[in-house]
Please model this.
Amino acid sequence: MRIAIISDTHLGYARFEEDSFVQAERAFLAASESADLILFAGDVFDTKIPKLETLDRAISIFKKIRIPVYAIHGNHERRTKEQVNPARLLHTSGVIRYLHGESAPYEMKGEKLQIFGIGNVPDEYAEAAVKKAMERFNPEPGAFKILLIHQSIKELLPHGSNELSLDYLETLPFDLIVNGHLHGKEVLLGGRFLIPGSTVVTQLRKDETGSKGFFMFDTGTRKADFVPIDSRPFFYEELSLKDANESEVMEAVRKRIGELKQTHPGAIISLKIDGTMKDGMSGSDIKLPEFEHVFIDNRMDSKSLTAKIGRIRDLRNEKLSVRELALKELEEKTKGKVTAFDPVELFEKLVEGPDETMDYLNKVDKDGKTAAGS
Model:
């Protein structure tokens, strides 16, 4: 049997709304042409309460699919038990079979499948929720058993701790485990664990730069092939500059974006710039050019900011008060640069109040003029 595995279409995603519909439809229709059924691993929609227009367009897409679709809800659709989530609403409309904590059999030409779906729960409760759901799972003899989930996976996160682990999932009695939620495709546990990734760019991260599409899994060979769809190109770029001025930063940005737009005019580009500015300049002062579907993450001077934070931490380790910290920084910053008045005295007057500050400045001004005229 051939099973198409799709996830995270995020229909109605505001930033790239048309992409979400067009690319999801391409995936579903391509799968419908060559698979026997479709497994959908959550986040059909981008919000818990989609607009009516979004729901209507989603139902129109699913009505074009000529094979069964089994689906669970994702974190973007999760609501409390008393509330209807939009994935269940699609089930009510008759265009998908929604699963949550239950099994569904499927049989074709003498081959049996048993699909067990568990919709998204908060990560800290995921393992407990799976264990509880497994109490209701009755393995059907002779059936190819599939688990459908939508969760974070500890080993795939940089600082994973409370999430589901591959080690735990590997102990479960399933021939295939399908997961959504993560937007880059993965094949793990010897091909037994699959993540198809999203069909639309949403997070503007490096792991979304790969091709969009779905997995086609063959239960006979137990192998999965990735089927790409036509989708808008996405580039994640990083620029690092040293001792740059504003014009140099802007020129580097324009040049790189221009190169990408020349070959891919409609591409989505996420550009991260970091490094250092020339003395006296701040990265926050740069007015970067605007381009359609270009998203710039300005991290210029982030190293100097880190150094400043480290400096404050060191001063705190000296057990100085906030007042003492401020005075020490003020003294160092103004040393040799301010001669008309004493910065520390001015700071103290500012703390006392506006009247005391004005009296001090008037006195400094008068003394300065007297000294100049003598």
The two ends are 101 Å apart (CA to CA).
